[in-house]
Amino acid sequence: MVINSDGLVLTIGYLVTEATDVWLTVPDGREVAAHPLAYDQVTGFGLVLPLEKVDIAPVPLGSSADIRAGDQAFVVSSPEFAEPQPVDVFARREFAGAWEYLLEDAIFATPAHPHWSEQR
């Protein structure tokens, strides 16, 4: 996700943890060389800087701090992976992920996303 006018990309940190070379595929299909800038152990996010102009508008960032149980939200991913899915927030509480993260204030929503959760 592009987060500023310089084309800085926010990504999942483990994708760039030990990377020396990064290639980004932009919406028009071009592959752009990029430099991994940072990996934050606390949040699990990484930052990548494209080495050429990508001409992608940054995503406007908001804050999840105001989301409460009973609110409506959307689960959004890459369009070719899954369409945005409307959900209802039913809880905010601690969550320990199997990948060794502890989220102190995780957002729980329903219905479960078909690609990111086990459906029974």
Give a verbal description of the structure.
Helix content is 0%, strand content 40%. Strand 3 and strand 4 form a beta hairpin. The strands form 2 sheets. The chain has a 4-stranded antiparallel beta sheet, with no helix packed on it. Strands 5-6-7 form a 3-stranded antiparallel beta sheet, with no helix packed on it. The two termini are 31 Å apart. It is mostly beta strands.
Which oligomeric state applies? Answer: single chain
The profile of the biggest β sheet is: 4 strands, antiparallel
Number of helices: 0
- Give the strand order of the largest sheet, numbering strands 1, 2, ... along the chain: 1-4-3-2
Task: Give the C-alpha Rg.
Answer: 16 Å
Number of E-type strands? 7
Label this structure with key terms.
single chain, three-stranded antiparallel sheet, 120 residues, globular, mainly beta
In short:
By secondary structure, the chain is mostly beta strands. The protein has strands spanning 9-12, 22-25, 31-39, 45-50, 72-75, 85-96, 102-110.
What's the layout of helices and strands?
Elements (H helix, E strand, L loop, with lengths): L8 E4 L9 E4 L5 E9 L5 E6 L21 E4 L9 E12 L5 E9 L10
Antiparallel strand pairs: 1-4, 2-3, 3-4, 5-6, 6-7
